[in-house]
Amino acid sequence: MAETPERKVLAPTAAETSPDNPWPLQLLSQKLKAHIEKAPPAWVEAQVIELNKRANVSYLTLRDIDAEVSLSVTVWGSVLGRLEAPLERGSRVVAQLKPDFWLKTGRLSMQGQDIRPVGLGDLLARIEALRQALAAEGLFDPRRKKRLPLLPHRIGLITGRNSDAMKDVMRNAALRWPAVEFEVREVPVQGVNAVSGVIGALAELDEDPRVDVIVIARGGGSLEDLLPFSHEQLVRAVAAAQTPVVSAIGHEADRPLLDEVADLRASTPTDAAKRIVPDVGEELRRVEQARTQLNRRIEDMLGRESERLAHLRTRPVLANPGVMISSRADAVAALGARAMTAVSTQLRRHGDQLEHLRAQVRALSPQKTLDRGYAVVQLENREIVRDPAQAPDGTQLLIRVAEGGFTATSNVPAATQIHPE
């Protein structure tokens, strides 16, 4: 009896397999299926870009809202049958997906267990919630908004490729100010690449020192088409830009969140062109008006000053300037006469005082005493004799009288000396 070959023991995990001890393909598939089936269903938000119906099964291709990522989904007719309106390409939906692994073919597929279209009301509610959250952060505060330059030398323009919005902005700006220059960045303005494209162009233009203002422009469209301009990343990028940003999205009624954070909101691309550059014709008219007003002011001032000069010329002092001198010459002469009289009076008064003092001095002088008959007796040493004892008998004396002097010798007996009373 032949021996039964010994059964090989398989590796318990994939990491333990080897060329000598491989897994059967069936085992790998079974383990993959068991692992994938453990994954719970997940709700995702996406856009339907392909829709093929075959009998009771529909094959959808869903694409991410913000990135180039797509996924094939199989949906049974019973799931789509619960929808109030038929699903169409381009619809925005939320779907509950469950991965499924086909054991025989090894193909991974996604099963749509539930699908719900995102209505206009849901989109508006999301935008409004984001609006309130960003406003609470202060991103829409008017004090954060930067002033646009009076005359930008170079304008950065972010818009769709060869779009009407680009033509409107450039044409109307050139009509208002022919010397205006543009730095254009053509990017997708709708779809999954719109947000990243606009943010990249914004960063590039914001770093360019030649660009004085940036315009983000797009023509009209549905709410879904304008959703990229309410994206949180784009709103925050505009808030962080150092260069003033002008929003020109859609029509007057369109109000994406970009309008709230931009430094200036233009209702249309044409309106943006009118608000970022002045009208050269209007500016020339203003210059002419200012020049006319200036000339008028100068003429009025010259007229008033001429009248003042004419009025001044009519005054007597200007009609005959000599009057001013002659009228004051009489006053000067009168003052001179008064000064001379005052000086003469003072001189006479002081002359009389001087004569009086001179008479007093003369009356008290020794000469006057001599004139009255007195004499001054002096010794030889010129000492005045005041006592007879100073001149004993035989003393040489000098006698001074009014008209001169002479010498004498004292010879006065002691018995005849005269003593004063």
Write structural notes for this entry.
- The protein has about 425 residues and is of the alpha/beta class.
- The protein is about 40% helix and about 20% strand.
- The chain has helices spanning about 25-35, 75-80, 120-135, 165-175, 195-205, 230-240, 255-260, 270-275, 280-315, 315-320, 320-365, 365-370; strands at about 40-55, 55-65, 70-75, 90-100, 105-115, 155-160, 180-185, 215-220, 245-250, 265, 375-380, 395-400, 405-410.
- The protein is built from twelve helices and 13 strands.
- It has four domains: about 15-120, Nucleic acid-binding proteins (OB fold (Dihydrolipoamide Acetyltransferase, E2P), Beta Barrel); about 125-280, Succinyl-CoA synthetase domains (Rossmann fold); about 335-365; about 375-415, no CATH class.
- Strand 6, helix 4 and strand 7 (about 180-185) form a beta-alpha-beta unit.
- It is elongated.
- The strands form three sheets. It has a five-stranded mixed barrel with strand order 1-2-3-5-4. Strands 7-6-8-9-10 form a five-stranded parallel β-sheet, sandwiched between helices. A three-stranded antiparallel β-sheet has the order 11-12-13, with no helix packed on it.
